[in-house]
């Protein structure tokens, strides 16, 4: 006796097949039986779900069921004509454990709908390059978080988050700059240490490409590229502050020289920013250029410290005719102004760059020559950086600078940095320095 072929029963056939008590292949919108008979084909519901033991690959648990009838020419024809139908899985029974939900009935309808999308395109259109998901990740990082590193307020948020990426679409050096600083941000803050090296490598690669393109345009800043040049110049400063530096406990001059290079770069970038400033003030970049000053009178201890610095400067000038009294006076006033901003609530990266930009050119030479009074000024710059410690690119600079200056100065000069050391490391700073 011949064995009867097992089959799965279904209660989802069309109403006409149920009335005739014949097997329905459940094709949508018209099953094969009704199509051959030119009968009206209706289903009791718009869709049906079939519980199957095997999940079709790639559909995340919901798979389209295979039509029951093998003789449906219309269904097979649609499947052959429509390339998108190959992306729809089919469910089959198996003995494997577990249950997944599959879409049954309506293969033709689904295929026809997807086929419409395929027919909307031009078969001769140029192929789209593959997506660079790494770069898309970095752009998302910029839009979600990194742009705030350069922003000061909601008004400037809009410029850094929206306008600058739009500008980067026309200027590859700016796009590479955005991706570089975003990758660096992730390298410095990602919770998974194993990924930080990869992010850092991507940051360096993008920055190298950005700088190569940026240098070519330095001699030709005009209205067409002014926005991009300005934005990139600002991004470079953040990148330079944020790039990780390996502390050298044996040589404190390493930190001083590192910071000196950052200050030189910041001052040089200012020349790029300054030239198109008038034009940019009339554009959508105007909110970035307008800095809302928030200065307040210094607290008593800070004001006393500034007075002490001025007095020490005058004493040094009286004792040594080669002492650069005027240069240090301007530098101390610069410190005082920036401290008044900090106490007034300014916590933007502007503070770090503005102090460097306003420094007398001669001060940079004195710092390069490792003059003690210049190092005293640098320790007070560390207090400004302390106010920015919540920003990832400045986090450890203040501590590194304080420790380095203290290690270099002798007992004659150390009293002049006492207030700065307390502000950065606390009242017990000597213990912390000695146990580093």
Automatic annotation (TrEMBL):
<dbReference type="GO" id="GO:0001228">
    <property type="term" value="F:DNA-binding transcription activator activity, RNA polymerase II-specific"/>
</dbReference>
<dbReference type="InterPro" id="IPR021858">
    <property type="entry name" value="Fun_TF"/>
</dbReference>
<feature type="compositionally biased region" description="Low complexity">
    <location>
        <begin position="85"/>
        <end position="101"/>
    </location>
</feature>
<dbReference type="InterPro" id="IPR001138">
    <property type="entry name" value="Zn2Cys6_DnaBD"/>
</dbReference>
<keyword id="KW-0238">DNA-binding</keyword>
<protein>
    <recommendedName>
        <fullName>Zn(2)-C6 fungal-type domain-containing protein</fullName>
    </recommendedName>
</protein>
<feature type="domain" description="Zn(2)-C6 fungal-type">
    <location>
        <begin position="13"/>
        <end position="43"/>
    </location>
</feature>
<feature type="region of interest" description="Disordered">
    <location>
        <begin position="60"/>
        <end position="101"/>
    </location>
</feature>
<dbReference type="InterPro" id="IPR053157">
    <property type="entry name" value="Sterol_Uptake_Regulator"/>
</dbReference>
<dbReference type="GO" id="GO:0008270">
    <property type="term" value="F:zinc ion binding"/>
</dbReference>
<dbReference type="GO" id="GO:0003677">
    <property type="term" value="F:DNA binding"/>
</dbReference>
<keyword id="KW-0804">Transcription</keyword>
<dbReference type="Pfam" id="PF11951">
    <property type="entry name" value="Fungal_trans_2"/>
</dbReference>
<dbReference type="InterPro" id="IPR036864">
    <property type="entry name" value="Zn2-C6_fun-type_DNA-bd_sf"/>
</dbReference>
<keyword id="KW-0539">Nucleus</keyword>
<dbReference type="Pfam" id="PF00172">
    <property type="entry name" value="Zn_clus"/>
</dbReference>
<keyword id="KW-0805">Transcription regulation</keyword>
């Amino acid at each position: 006796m011949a064995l009867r072929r097992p089959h799965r029963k279904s209660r989802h056939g069309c109403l006409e097949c149920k009335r005739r008590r014949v097997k329905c292949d459940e094709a949508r919108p018209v099953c094969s039986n009704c199509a051959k008979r030119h009968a009206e084909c209706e289903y009791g519901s718009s869709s049906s779900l079939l519980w199957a033991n095997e999940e079709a690959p790639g559909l995340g648990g919901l798979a389209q069921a295979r039509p029951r009838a093998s003789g449906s020419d219309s269904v097979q024809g649609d499947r052959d004509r429509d390339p998108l139908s190959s992306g729809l899985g089919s469910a089959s029974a198996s003995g494997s454990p577990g249950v997944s939900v599959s879409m049954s009935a309506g293969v033709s309808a689904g295929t026809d709908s997807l086929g419409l999308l395929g027919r909307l395109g031009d078969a001769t259109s140029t192929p789209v390059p593959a997506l660079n998901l790494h770069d898309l990740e970095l752009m998302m990082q910029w839009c979600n978080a990194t742009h705030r590193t350069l922003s000061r307020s909601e008004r400037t948020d809009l410029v850094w988050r929206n306008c600058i990426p739009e500008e980067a679409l026309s200027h590859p050096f700016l796009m590479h700059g955005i991706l570089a600083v975003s990758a660096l941000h992730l390298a410095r803050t990602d919770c998974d240490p194993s990924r930080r090296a990869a992010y850092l490598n991507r940051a360096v690669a993008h920055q190298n490409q950005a700088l190569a393109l940026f240098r070519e345009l330095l001699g030709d800043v005009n209205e067409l590229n002014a926005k991009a040049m300005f934005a990139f110049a600002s991004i470079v400063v953040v990148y330079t502050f944020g790039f990780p530096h390996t502390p050298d406990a044996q040589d404190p001059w390493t930190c001083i020289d590192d910071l000196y290079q950052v200050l030189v770069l910041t001052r040089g970038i200012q020349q790029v920013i300054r030239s198109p400033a008038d034009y940019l003030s009339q554009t959508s970049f105007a909110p970035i250029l307008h800095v809302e000053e928030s200065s307040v009178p210094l607290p008593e201890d800070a004001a006393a410290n500034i007075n002490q610095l001025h007095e020490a400067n005058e004493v040094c000038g009286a004792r040594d005719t080669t002492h650069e009294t005027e240069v240090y006076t301007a530098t101390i006033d610069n410190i005082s102004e920036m401290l008044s901003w900090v106490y007034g609530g300014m916590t933007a990266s502007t503070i770090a760059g503005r102090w460097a930009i306003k420094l007398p050119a001669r001060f940079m030479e004195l710092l390069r020559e490792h003059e003690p009074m210049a190092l005293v000024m640098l320790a007070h710059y560390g207090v400004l950086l302390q106010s920015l410690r919540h920003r990832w690119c400045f986090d450890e600079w203040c501590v590194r600078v304080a420790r380095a200056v203290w290690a270099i100065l002798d007992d004659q000069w150390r009293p002049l940095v006492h207030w700065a050391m307390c502000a950065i490391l606390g009242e017990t700073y000597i213990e912390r320095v000695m146990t580093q």
